[in-house]
């Protein structure tokens, strides 16, 4: 039996984009609840978030693969956070040229051009930790079995919990 192949770059980008999109909606819903006690939880985002998060997390994946054996996780997360600020500013600046930037941090005290804000440093750091430890590491473990048939059992009946029984 041939070994299952790792997910393609496009497949991983898609998973990262959906993850980022979902987190953005949940964050804005939670923020609106905390600030306004809005029990409707109206999370919002933009279709641009798919490209922004998918591409950003794919680049963080590349950084993770280069840095994981060289730097402590705290240092890596600081690097990811700095990357996030650079990416958020760059994409926001480009989208603003078309009046399409979905965020505006002008009301924050430590904002720069309304596109990034220092107040989000800790949330971005925590998000980068979650992205590395849960999202990227588990996505890289996923495999695609080209020969699998839809609806067919995933494991032969002689396996338990993903391991072959030896008794």
Topology:
Layout: E1 5-6, H1 9-36, H2 48-67, H3 73-97, E2 111-112, E3 116-117, H4 121-141, E4 143-144, E5 159-160, E6 163-164
Antiparallel strand pairs: 1-4, 2-3, 5-6
Helix pairs in contact: 1-2, 1-4, 2-3, 3-4
Structural description of this entry:
It is a single chain. By secondary structure, the protein is mainly α. The chain has one domain (5-141). It is built from four helices and six strands. Helix 1 packs across helix 2 (48-67) and helix 1 (9-36) runs antiparallel to helix 4.
Percentage of β-strand residues: 5-15%
Helices and strands, in order, run as EHHHEEHEEE
Rg over CA atoms: 20 Å
Would you count the extended β strands for me? 6
Total of domains: 1
Main sheet strand line-up: 1-4
Average pLDDT, to the nearest integer?
A: 91
Give the helix proportion (percent range). Answer: 55-70%
Alpha-carbon distance between the two ends: 22 Å
Q: Write down the overall geometry.
A: globular
| Low-confidence runs of at least 5 consecutive residues | none
User: Which structural class is indicated by helix and strand composition?
Assistant: mainly alpha
Helical stretch count? 4
Describe the largest sheet: 2 strands, antiparallel
């Amino acid at each position: 039996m041939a070994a299952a192949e790792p997910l393609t770059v496009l497949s991983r980008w898609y998973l990262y984009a959906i993850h980022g999109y979902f987190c953005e909606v949940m964050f804005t819903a939670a923020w609106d609840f905390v600030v306004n006690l809005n029990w409707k939880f109206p999370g919002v985002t933009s279709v641009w978030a798919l490209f922004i998060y998918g591409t950003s997390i794919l680049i963080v994946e590349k950084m993770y693969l280069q840095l994981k054996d060289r730097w402590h996780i705290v240092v890596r997360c600081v690097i990811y956070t700095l990357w996030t600020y650079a990416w958020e500013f760059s994409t926001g600046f480009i989208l603003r040229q078309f009046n399409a930037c979905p965020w505006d941090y002008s009301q924050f005290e430590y904002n720069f051009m309304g596109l990034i804000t220092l107040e989000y440093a800790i949330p971005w750091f925590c998000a980068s930790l979650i992205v590395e430890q849960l999202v990227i590491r588990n996505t890289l473990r996923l495999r695609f079995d080209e020969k699998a048939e839809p609806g067919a059992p995933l494991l032969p009946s002689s396996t338990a919990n993903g391991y072959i029984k030896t008794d």
